[in-house]
Amino acid sequence: MTLRPDCSKKSWRFFLWFWLADNRGMDKNSVSPQNQFHVCDAPSALQCQDCFVRAFEMIDLDSPQWAELQTAYGTASEVPAMLEELYAGRAEPLDDLFSYICHQGSIYTGSVAALPHLLKIAQAVQIEDLPEFKVDVLTLAGAICESAEFTPEFYTPYIKKAFFEEALVLTLATLREFSNSSCALYLLKAAAAFAGHPGLARVLDGFADEEFSTSCPTCKVDLYIWPALHGLTVAAEDPVVFPDTERLPVVAGEPAESTYHEAYQWVVQVLGKIPNQLSLKEGVKALFGKATCPACKHEFLLLDTLMNDSLA
Questions:
Q1: Does 10 share its domain with 68?
Q2: Does any domain span residue 85?
């Protein structure tokens, strides 16, 4: 059995109750006047409804509080019905829900309130039964967390640290089971957002578009960064219009002067644990590398430049 505390009430009294219970043989539920402890047999908080609600501040679907929350189209009163459909394993509402709570990268109070439900839904789905559905639900949750508007001040009233930990574990476990490159990319994006690298998650979109667009930091010419057989290349002219234009390879790996060492170490570790996905692995390593502008030959840190663009 596992003793799980209510993560939303960790004060000095919380730890005093815990010490008293452990050291005096007292029942842990009885020593806490606020019933801050819950004993269960589930191996994870995701698998116990009571633990889940306590840890992740989940709002009941029938709560009137949804009408006080916001989405892109007004109040969040329609969100519970869409979530109920997802709980039933029906994927049809996903597009509408995405539009409501993550509209072109913008998020709302209803978006954050939906996150614990999305995690619970994804955990309940068996990959062998509805593989793309599971990926799509985690993708939506990740898209909310990668938004530039997703700040601690914004999300703290609705979710706690435990959400990110459980979401990351589930997403990485799902990622290791997928051979589809598109699904792997979106799961990697979601994992990056849950792991605290939202800027990287946003930049990874370029692999889905098969193009990263930026401009040279020195001469300001527009640059076209394309995936290649191994890694990425840079062109100063659109290769679609000018197929013979010069395309210089990006030197993969982390330059010594990189400002994203932690993100690089994290993503390399994650990619090292998933099978196959060679092109994605090489492309991501090139993303952290050093690029050269074909027009003026200036060298620059590719990810730093793309990160700045994502915040502009």
A1: no
A2: yes
Provide the domain limits for residue 254. 206-311
With a CB cutoff of 8 Å and minimum separation 6, the contacts of 10 are none
One-letter identity of residue 225: I
Look at the chain and report how many structural domains it folds into.
Answer: 3
Residue 191 lies in a domain: no
- For 261-278, how does the pLDDT look when each residue is reduced to its tens digit (9 = 90+)? 899 999 999 999 988 888
Q: At what angle do helices 131-146 and 109-124 cross, to 10 degrees?
A: 150
How many residues are given for the chain? 312
- Kindly state whether residue 123 falls inside one of the protein's structural domains: yes
One domain, residues 114 and 23: no
Strands (E), the chain: 2-5, 37-40, 70-71, 74-75, 212-215, 222-227, 232-235, 247-249, 290-292, 299-301
Q: Which residue has the tokens 């006047």?
A: 33
Q: What are the pLDDT digits (tens) for 71-120? A: 999 999 999 999 999 999 999 999 999 999 999 999 999 999 999 999 99
Q: What residues are paired with 234 via a beta bridge?
A: 225, 248
